[in-house]
Amino acid sequence: MKIARRALLAMPSAAPALAQAWPSAPIRLIVPFAPGGTTDLVARMVATPLAERLGVAIAVENRAGAGATVGSLMAAQAAPDGLTLVMSNIASHGIGPSLYPNIRYDAVRDFTHVALLISNPSVFVANPRAGITNLAELAAQHRARPQGLDMASSGAGSSNHMLIVRIGQMLGREINHIPFRGAGPAMTAVIAGQVPLMSDSLPSAASHIRQGSVRPIAMSSEARHPAFPDVPTMREQGFDIVSTTWFGLSGPAGMPAPVVERLSRELRAILSGSDIRARFAELGGTPGQMSPAEYTEFVRREVAEWAPLVRASGATPD
Predict the structure, then answer these.
(1) What is the CATH number of the domain that holds 200?
(2) Helix (H, G, I), strand (E, B), or coil: what is residue 120?
(3) How many angstroms separate the CA atoms of 178 and 160, rounded?
(4) Do 116 and 93 have their domain in common?
(5) Contacts for 253 with CB less than 8 Å, ≥ 6 apart
(6) pTM of the predicted model, to two decimals?
(7) Per-residue confidence (pLDDT) for residue 182, from 0 to 100
(8) SS3 sequence, 209-262?
């Protein structure tokens, strides 16, 4: 479905004047997941220094639902004045277009993609009382239980959902996916023992792993992650899976070029700073370094690459 644009787009003289005055009001940053997950963490890490550099407040607004597509649609439908931004991510802009047959936006055409902020692997974690310390024990319990194992994720359509589908395919039996409205609520359920396992992005799981609230059992990185060298990869444990999750900053299609260039410049400065690089490294993430054009092309490739994988998986929104 084609997104309807406001009258601002039809006014050629509006863009230069708008860009010159921008930002003229507080900025709304939509996080299409619940508080507490990686998307939310990264948004708040970046929003604070970006607000300081721009001289206006940035209000982070969590709008969860439908694999991050609800909040993303809100951003796509907003005025392209640079005052509404969204945390684009692998769920909403990589997997979602193939997973949701009635999605109401085009992940490339209906957005102005500004910058890749961070990429990171995923990690499988277990409640310490679940008796699962590695993938072999996960497989054994899954086979032994008549109904199989339950495994949480931040929501249907996330890359972590796809990892659950993938591991079930390799085990020859579907794992029961338990979707939540964000990684924070899902992690709370695992810590409480309501769900034994979770597939999560490393940044949102890192503090819980360090605190011992959950036990890491496998990492989706190519090699062991330097922040968690004791956690074996999935490949090490006999499962040929490598997966990276990503998060970026985007806005509605048609944002004025000077506004996009200013945002890109400020974000490059923030992401190259030693403080945020250290914080990202502690969480297990790598800062992005892409121009708006490069990030747009990256999103285009992700949509194309995930489409056949989603179809082959047979996954559907839960």
Answers:
(1) 3.40.190.10
(2) strand
(3) 11
(4) yes
(5) 3, 5, 76, 80, 109, 110, 111, 112
(6) 0.81
(7) 87
(8) HHHCCCEEEEECCCCCCCCCCCCCECHHHCCCCCCEEEEEEEEECCCCHHHHHH
> 181 is written with which tokens?
């409205």
**Claim to verify: residue 130 and residue 200 sit in the same structural domain:** yes
Mean pLDDT in residue range 272-286: 91
Q: What total of structural domains would you count in the chain?
A: 2
The pair of three-digit structure tokens given for residue 25, joined into one six-digit string: 């009001």
> Three-state DSSP class for 170?
helix
- 166 located within any domain: yes
- 301 lies in which domain range? 7-120+245-313
Indicate whether 250 and 183 sit together in one domain. no
Distance in angstroms (rounded) separating the CA atoms of residues 33 and 12: 35
Distance CA 293, CA 150 (A): 40
pLDDT tens-digit series, residues 3-56: 544 444 444 445 555 556 899 999 999 999 989 888 999 999 999 999 999 999
Nearest to 40 by CA among 190, 219, 185, 255: 185
Interatomic CA distance for residues 210 and 203, integer angstroms: 12
| 19 and 114 inside one domain | yes
Are 150 and 109 in a shared domain? Answer: no
- pLDDT digit string (tens) for 140-168? 999 999 999 999 998 888 889 999 999 99
d(CA 79, CA 82): 8
8 A C-beta contact, residue 191 and residue 205 = no
Q: Is position 35 within any domain?
A: yes
CA distance 247 to 119: 6
3-state secondary structure of 164: helix
Q: Which two tokens stand for residue 22?
A: 């921008």
